[in-house]
Specification:
Oligomer: single chain
Distance between the termini: 73 Å
CATH architecture of the largest domain: Sandwich
Low-confidence stretches: none
Number of strands: 19
Order of helices and strands: HHEEEEEEEEHEHHHEEHEEEEEEEE
Number of domains: 3
């Protein structure tokens, strides 16, 4: 009897351990799937908190719900943003709530430079574009319409039906580096973007005014499973689009049923323990993925996953965590690396050179351009004595070699060799750093993954 009882007890312990491991695996998948929803909610909650919003407006294009916020300068090392900023464009943006009526974005025609409006849903999937590429530089009146709204839009207003009642967009407008007059011109263009609630549209005198629906108060959860309880509420409010049935089933296996609050008390103890551990380990998994996201190339550059993700939930979560908005391949190519061509981590105590042969310079469409930006380990821009945070084909006084090739010198001290300082990208003083390489409006050759290696020379250590 004793032996049988011991075997039974051992079996129960082993079963509980296996159940916990299964719940852990499900929890990691649900953490990855749900993370973009929580990041969108972070942005939404920020805009509903006047004190937090005012604080955020110092470093981000934040504004109350349904209004456009602007950053009037390029990002610098003084900014501490919750995402990885570029140093190529000024940002504007808005978060819209559409449950009561459409919101109409009015955009100007901008023909003399790159610009885009990138629209993303609550899962940070790209929905549509307006701008240089998508609309030939023409703006116009664009109505963002919730999935359940019924009605007729005014003549001349273009309808864009959204998958959910919440949506956000980022406006990027290219600015010539170190050109105050050009920045002033772009600032004036930013002010020509406005949002208007449909109910105010009939009277031109009220254009620019918006309404905000009663959004109620979200439940606040504490405890080991608070993340998953929050995801349950957000996913119920923003049902996944068709094609995500597999993910919905995994959510259910982790105690999340769409349309219902998550009942954490109904879960078995092993399941609770497994999910709780997943909530702890999920951020570590994402920190790893952010560091090594995208498709690697032999020269150690990674081509980041474009922002229309489909069922690529891991890259979607990494994109929302690091960048919030990630361009589609047609709009811009993103590359990043932490390593030199020998697979050694980039270190600010070392000196490097990035050499482009003439045929390695990435080709772009009209108003397109490319840049390489320096980031510290915190994903923020790096303070330096010449206030240069990026370098590229628009950099003033960039020195090209006689054969059309280009050398970029990456180090913490001003290069001593004659002519090198004009091509200097200052690095961190010491420790790890990362480079992001962006190509805006790439030509066909520069956006085909199989051909991209041609434009990705290795970073070579020189000391």
């Amino acid at each position: 009897m004793g032996s049988s009882s011991q075997q039974s007890s051992g079996t129960r312990v082993e079963d509980a351990r296996s159940e916990e491991q299964w719940a852990y695996s499900v929890g990691i998948q649900n953490y990855v799937f749900g993370l973009p929803l929580t990041i969108f909610e972070r942005e939404r909650a920020l805009r509903l908190n006047p004190i937090a919003l005012k604080r955020a407006q110092a470093y981000a294009p934040a504004a109350p719900i349904n209004q456009i916020g602007h950053m009037k300068t390029l990002a610098t090392a003084d900014d501490d943003m919750p995402y990885t900023p570029n140093n190529d464009t000024v940002y504007s943006g808005a978060l819209l709530e559409l449950r009561e009526e459409p919101i109409i974005l009015t955009a100007p025609d901008i023909m003399d430079r790159y610009w885009s409006v990138e629209v993303a849903d609550t899962y940070t999937n790209n929905v549509l574009y307006i701008g240089t590429r998508a609309t030939g530089g023409h703006g116009g009146h664009h109505a963002f319409v919730g999935p359940n709204w019924k009605g007729k839009l005014p003549t001349g207003v273009i309808e864009h039906r959204m998958p959910n009642d919440s949506v956000m967009f980022a406006i990027r407008i290219g600015v010539k580096p170190d050109d105050a007059d050009d920045l002033a011109k772009v600032n004036a263009q930013q002010e020509q973007f406005t949002t208007t609630a449909l109910s105010y549209w009939s009277d031109p005198a009220t254009h620019g005014q918006v309404t905000v629906p009663d959004l109620g108060t979200r439940p606040h959860y504490d405890g080991d499973l608070a993340f998953f309880q929050t995801v349950a509420d957000l996913a119920s409010e923003n049902p996944p689009a068709p094609g995500n049935e597999g993910a919905i089933e995994v959510l259910r296996r982790g105690g999340i049923t769409l349309g219902e609050p998550m009942d954490a008390d109904a879960l078995s103890e092993p399941t609770r323990k497994g999910l709780a551990q997943a909530a702890i380990d999920g951020p570590n998994v994402m920190n790893w993925k952010v560091k090594y996201r995208g498709t690697p190339y032999p020269t150690r550059w990674n081509n980041l996953q474009p922002g229309t993700y489909g069922v690529n939930y891991l890259d979607r979560a990494a994109g929302s965590l690091e960048g919030l908005f990630v361009h589609d391949r047609e709009e811009a190519e993103y590359f990043s690396t932490y390593e030199d061509g020998d697979a050694k981590l980039l270190d600010g105590s070392q000196k490097y050179v990035l050499h482009f042969d003439a045929d390695q310079i990435p080709p772009t469409l009209h108003n397109g351009f490319w840049s390489i930006t320096m980031y510290g380990a915190d994903f923020q821009l790096v303070d330096n004595p010449i206030n240069r945070y990026s370098i590229g084909d628009r950099t003033k006084d960039l020195a090209w070699n006689p054969d059309g090739s280009l050398d970029i010198y990456i180090q913490n001290e001003r290069p001593a060799a004659p002519g090198h300082a004009s091509n200097w990208l200052p690095s961190t003083q010491s420790g790890q750093f990362r480079l992001n390489y962006r190509v805006y409006l790439p030509t066909d050759d520069a956006k085909v993954p199989a051909l991209l290696g041609k434009y990705l020379p290795p970073i070579e250590k020189t000391s």
